[in-house]
Amino acid sequence: AQKITQTQPGMFVQEKEAVTLDCTYDTSDPSYGLFWYKQPSSGEMIFLIYQGSYDQQNATEGRYSLNFQKARKSANLVISASQLGDSAMYFCAMRYISNFGNEKLTFGTGTRLTIIP
Amino acid sequence: GAGVSQTPSNKVTEKGKYVELRCDPISGHTALYWYRQSLGQGPEFLIYFQGTGAADDSGLPNDRFFAVRPEGSVSTLKIQRTERGDSAVYLCASSPIPGGGYGYTFGSGTRLTVV
Predict the structure, then answer these.
(1) Gap from A103 CA to chain B (nearest CA, Å)
(2) b/e A39-61 (16+ beta carbons within 10 angstroms → b)
(3) Per-residue pLDDT of chain B (115 residues; tens, 9 = 90+)
(4) Chain B residue with minimum CA distance to A44
């Protein structure tokens, strides 16, 4: 079974500092994908970054980078130069193929990030 | 539309009542998903549509839950005889790629409260 674990329920970080949000996963499938989403208080899930299991290089998207360590089954999100607007819930999720042959996402429990001015 | 639209944004209903939650996906997106997010949890899969048909409804918790997508665009999630445990945020996502890919766009959700 696929599982995502986020062990940090909450984090407080000073503005302009870098922050790492932890994510470990469990799957026996060789082909999968890992996402990070941001969920502000308004509720929508905002896509941040994606890493495919066969991608050779770590994904980067502006201030976001994904530290993908396949052997350790971890996919930590790094946010450089944090901003007040980064305060939100952050979810790690895994894309996999279900027994029905369609894609699904399984999510972790999230990390609430608060940026302190 | 520009994004995935979900209505209503908030719904309060009495225990035992019937509710409908609507999702209007991005135009042309063939894949549509419903997820449920309980307080303090990540979203959990409910059902997946490819076009008009429900290709995977394995996440629906029981037979009180049903979803349709009759014309392959708008979808309605229907909950009969609501229970307090149904209180959650119901999220809809759509994708232009059959099977999902990584191009999911989520709506802002419907917050359902059963009193």
Answers:
(1) 5
(2) beeebbbebbbbbebeeeeebee
(3) 579 999 999 999 999 999 999 999 999 888 999 999 999 899 999 999 988 888 899 999 999 999 999 998 999 999 999 999 999 999 999 988 765 556 789 999 999 999 9
(4) B108
